[in-house]
């Protein structure tokens, strides 16, 4: 379902809710007018009409609640599809690297055989540097999350974003659902990229740190400043400051609360080369013992 379809559906449901509430209020007013009283309509019939409209209003509220839940599920499903695609791309990259590795060995062996030792050393150093840029994604202990971050790093290159990633955690022995980690990191990174790609600094930083009894995930980006009044609303279902479905941060907070964690937002202005722009940091804290 497209974002425009989401909006139309929400507007339709909210309009229906407003209509039911209007009819309920109007029925209460109309039934108690002098004109109706002179028609000698029994009190129980008037009460029945009021209760009927009240029931319709409650049912409509329940329908709207289920609608928002369904939209949240649709968003989560799309996130899963995107992450599966990222994992497939990651696997294909590893296969390509294995093939390239065989070629590298043949070239190194050939240079050694013809006595080009200095050239062989330079070639090995070049390969080593390229491997460092890729291998930093392997040690998280969660293949799905590694694949996601690797895919996001490629997207950062496309948008010329300075994407920095650091970690000191191994998820292999921790009881966190990989899809939940992807929901948290994926939505926060997407949100950061949206603002950073049109900013002056074009900076996004992701840190996943082991803090003893808890895991701390921080995502910082340039190009956005969230004031106090908006901080109270950005996690609400349907609320958005960038013309989207308003589900991303809602999903993040819901997932964090599932683990009895917390999420904080901090914004500030920083000056770089005499240009001041906003920076926003989302900090997610997840306790290890759930």
What does this protein structure show overall?
The chain has helices at residues 3-31, 34-38, 43-113, 117-135, 143-158, 178-196, 228-231, 248-258, and strands at 162-167, 203-210, 214-222, 262-272, 275-287. β2 (203-210) and β3 (214-222) form a beta hairpin. The radius of gyration is 28 Å and the shape is elongated. It contains 8 helices and 5 strands; from the N terminus they run αααααβαββααββ. It has a 5-stranded mixed sheet. It has 2 domains: 3-75; 139-287, Heat Shock Protein 90 (2-Layer Sandwich), CATH 3.30.565. The longest helix is centred in the first third of the chain and has 71 residues, at 43-113. α1 packs antiparallel against α3, α3 (43-113) packs across α5 (143-158) and α6 packs antiparallel against α8. The protein is an alpha+beta fold.
Written as H for each helix and E for each strand, in order along the chain, the element string is: HHHHHEHEEHHEE
Largest sheet data: 5 strands, mixed
Report the count of strand segments: 5
What is the CATH level 1 assignment of the largest domain?
Alpha Beta
User: What does the overall shape look like?
Assistant: elongated
Domain unit count: 2
Return the CATH topology of the largest domain: Heat Shock Protein 90
Note the quaternary state here.
Answer: single chain
Strand order of the largest sheet: 1-2-3-5-4
Q: What is the CATH superfamily of the largest domain? A: Histidine kinase-like ATPase, C-terminal domain
How far apart are the first and last residues' alpha carbons, in Å? 34 Å
| CATH architectural type of the largest domain | 2-Layer Sandwich
